Structures
1.
Amino acid sequence: MKTLQTIVSSGGIAGLKYLQGILASRLINFWCVNYLADDMNKAYLEKIPIRTIDFTDPDDVARHDRMVALVTQMLDLHARLAAEGVPHDAAGRPRSSGGLR
């Protein structure tokens, strides 16, 4: 993708983290590469098959909360690695020379 439009959420930070987790997934990346154009806009984003969470269903809430927790964990890890000066490869993974402690 060359560009991505700004996304505004009425669901607060948890809604954005949930969306970030989905958009960063390999499955959605595959879907976007194969079914969407290079330049994403609102019309293309609306075509991404994202299932709506049913917040009255405890299982849906648990899946949502797990996704948000994993995204939070990854954001915290990236912030910690950046603060420690650990070099990253092009995909954002720590290089083996830096490693995780």
2.
Amino acid sequence: MENQVFQKGNTFRLKITCKDFSETLTDPTVLNLKVYDSTGTAVLTKAIGDLVHASTGVYYYDWSYTTLGDYVYEFSGTLAGFSMLAWAKFSIEYWT
């Protein structure tokens, strides 16, 4: 998976699209978002009620963070009775 790069101080969107095994967009019953820094420390934790429900199966959270570094965000939860986990890497950098 390609590492996303965001500029320090900008707002960026952490997004997930949830589909069941038949590829149908489906809302999860449980959904959590966590962001971890390069030491494995959680720097953000959000539950389904904190996320924007854009449409069936589509959720996001807009976030602005100013600490430079490498991060991983993960969405975890329960979808159609099964555990789910999706993650991606990103970096926050400073451009002049």
3.
Amino acid sequence: MLTNSCHFPKGVCDPTFSSIEEYLGRNTQDYYKVLAEVGQGKWNPQNGTRPWIRLNLIAHYRQAGTALRRARMIRNCGKNWNEKYGNMVVRPNDLRAI
């Protein structure tokens, strides 16, 4: 499975953030449909794997888009914070509330 396969510079694509579990959790029925289609109840090497591979590639693509949107949102929050509060010192405990 492709869930831990990521080809980016170190630190850019931590496996924690490249997992497709979130996507699969939102698309559970699609996951089980493809699993039933490919597996047909048991391991059979003659069954085609194309639907399974397609599902995984789509999941990685869409999850990457979600991660990118979140990263941009966080960056913008930091930028807005700096513009509004400048060099204000924030204690680590205060960050949890933010």
